[in-house]
Predict the 3D structure of the following.
Amino acid sequence: MRLLPRAYTALVRTLDSARRRVPAYRTLNRIELQQAALLHNFHLFQARHPQLSIMPVLKGNAYGHGLREIARMLDDAPCGLLVVDGYFEAGAIRRSSRHRVLVLGYILPENVPLLDTKRCSFVVQDIAGLEAFGRLGRAVHIHLEINTGMNRMGLRPDEVDAYLAAVKRFPLLHLEGVMTHLADADRPAGDAATRAQTELFDKCVGRILAAGFTPRFIHIAQTAGSSKVQSRYATALRLGIGLYGINPLCPDDPQYAALQSLRPVLSLKSTIVRTIAVRPGERIGYNGTYGVTESMRIGVLPLGYYEGVPRELSNSGVVTAGSRALPITGRVCMNYTMIDLRGSSLAAGDEVTVISADPLQPNSVVRLSADHHLFPYTILTALSSSVRRITI
């Protein structure tokens, strides 16, 4: 049945009215993302390195923050390229961002014909990959990675000339970028390894330029190396953990203070779904690792290590409610965590903060890392994609 214009308009209004009457579904857990903090961090690096193009790194689900959410938040920022690991990540954000995307991860040559290359650039690691892209018969932007000491991916310096010769065989391949990856930029005691990698990288870039190539993006430093690298040729900076407000340097690193004005972007909130009165002699959680010595009240949170609460916080971490710290009691479960409610009036339905965006709080990423010997990257990337992300 085809509706006449007036009938169609009336139907749309009826459906809209019905949707407005349906209450919004309240999630028990949510991740809040502060856009102002994200853009502050971006512009901080831009101001510190005005000669470099800033390339935000969104791999690992944007370091746990949410791939699409962060891409949308950066849409108006002057990004050189958005950087991801896999092609699936590039596909996930092409409709969320106007920026071009650089895929760092290895692409099997057999998969190359399946790729949409219009808005993507690719790090191509070997001649077999070059030939696969070259046979497409269309323009493709590629980046060459040089192994200057990481010994993970990239070509050795003595392999670069053969690679460049292969690029010249395919006129539609455009060498848009040259990169390397620093292995030791976060070492506080001396930067000898970083200086050696930079020197080797610059020698290779000099040879590439002498061969007639003019790559737009020459990138060596990440967040940790941003204040340490002195490259003659670098034109871009891959901004990873610093974009999200985390300082990767140790407090005793001479460059630590340069990144201390970063603002954490993420906080993780949860809701108490049940309170339980427990008595002396009872035990809490798997294997009864918390023994109750006095009558107390505990609260149950509907998230655990699957959602991203580190299991290492069992019987040692805290969540916060305002300025009050509430200890985690018993082992963190897959989907539940129990907390000590003594001294508080919190009840079922009340919210607590599991990971705080305030660096001074005991449950901030920086304090969790320092106090519980946790790696800040894994704290963030372990956050499940099932937890709703909300941009503030």
